[in-house]
Amino acid sequence: MARLRLKNPRRFDNTAYLYLLPAFLLLAVFTIYPLVNTILTSAKLDYRFLTGAYVRVSLRHYADIMADATFLRAVFNTAFIAFVCVPLSMLSALVTALLLNSIKKLRGFFTTLYYLPQVTNVIAAGMVFAFLFNSNFGLVNTMLGWIGIDPVAWISGVNIAKSAALYNQAYLRCLFVLLVYSLWSGLSMKVVLFLGGLQNINPQYYQVAQIDGTSRWRVLRKITLPLLSPTTIYVFITSVITAFKAYSAVVALFGNTYGPIGDNSKMMITIVGYIIDALGDYLSAGAISIASAAAVILLLIIMGLTALQLKLSQKWVHYK
Q1: What gap in Å lies between CA 136 and CA 138, rounded to an integer?
Q2: Strand ranges inside the chain, DSSP E
Q3: What is the C-alpha to C-alpha distance for residues 90 and 55, in angstroms, rounded to an integer?
Q4: pLDDT digit string, tens, across residues 247-291
Q5: What's the rounded Cα separation, in Å, for the pair 94 and 88?
Q6: CA 286, CA 278: separation in Å to the nearest integer?
Q7: List of domains in the chain
Q8: Whole-number mean pLDDT of the chain?
Q9: How far is CA 38 from CA 25, 34, 137, 272, in A?
Q10: Of residues 122, 119, 75, 134, the one with CA closest to residue 249
Q11: Taking Cα atoms as reference points, which of 98, 301, 264 lies closest to residue 190?
Q12: Cβ count within 10 A of residue 129
């Protein structure tokens, strides 16, 4: 059989680049240019958006942001979502996926139920949880009343100037509400991904383990979890990146001031919320630069964590 030969391979390569040109243009206009412009803007001291004027090139905005107590609170809240809520939601999703994978009847029905939060509006879901944990008429306090427990002020803030102890208690209660919401919303996509990973494992491994009389716990540790590691690292990386972009759910739960009613210290603000707050006064000198600097810091955090996760995953991810 005669081999197919390309008369001009170089011409073929140029044609391929031509087909890719529209994608490159879109990437340059909507990704590369905004990214470069944000980095440059973050270094312009007292930059004015309307006139484009600025005093000089300086990194003072970065220093001011890192010394800002509100930004440090935003970093802590975002880290709580990324490194507490995400692992716990992954654990609950994995357990749920294992249970779903062990049944045949109604598996599709239950999978659809768990996927529903993914197609639910984030603002609407957050408002529902805010209603459930309402201090006066919330369903959670109603259920606690059935067993004789007094109502808890789940979503209510206290000005730190009045009492630091009460403020910390209110903050912990709000973190608990955020954790519960994150566990619920995180089940949807994670369950589907874990279930897909489980079903892609070669059943022959389990058949051999069954012949050898291996216990279920050992099968889980030695077969299921190692072979599920590519899915696990993918879910973890994407979930952490999504957590660092958290904003809408926090607003829906705690309001536009990023804190419960009665609190004025931006108790539950996230990094994205901090950036949006800075952009709210975009006409004033330096507001755009501060927001740009915060966005660059967020980008560096996400890039660093992703690189670290990929590096560490090489030691424990199994692809066979």
Answers
A1: 6
A2: none
A3: 48
A4: 988 888 887 767 776 676 788 899 999 999 888 877 677 788 999
A5: 10
A6: 9
A7: 58-313 (1.10.3720.10)
A8: 84
A9: 19, 6, 45, 15
A10: 122
A11: 98
A12: 22
**How far, in Å, CA of 29 to CA of 36, rounded?**
11
Looking at residue 57, what DSSP letter applies?
Answer: B
According to the 3-state scheme, what is the secondary structure of 236-261? HHHHHHHHHCCCHHHHHHHCCCCCCC
Closest of 131, 132, 175 to residue 157, by C-alpha: 175
Neighbours of 276 (CB within 10 A): 17
Alpha-carbon distances, residue 75 vs 68, 98, 124, 240, 298 (angstroms): 11, 34, 25, 13, 9
State both tokens at 239. 């979930």
Output the six-digit token pair for 177.
């509400």
> Residues 144-170: pLDDT tens digits?
888 888 888 888 766 665 677 888 888
Residues whose CB falls within 8 Å of the CB of residue 70, separated by 6 or more in sequence, listed in order: 266, 269, 274
- Check residue 118 and give left, alpha or beta (phi > 0: left; psi -120 to 50: alpha): alpha
Tell me: pLDDT of 1 over 50. Answer: no
Question: d(Cα 280, Cα 263) in Å, to the nearest integer?
Answer: 20
3-class state of residue 44 by DSSP: strand
| Tokens (6 digits) for 210 | 């069954």
Structure-derived torsion over alpha carbons of residues 75, 77, 82, 86, reported in degrees to the nearest 10 = 180
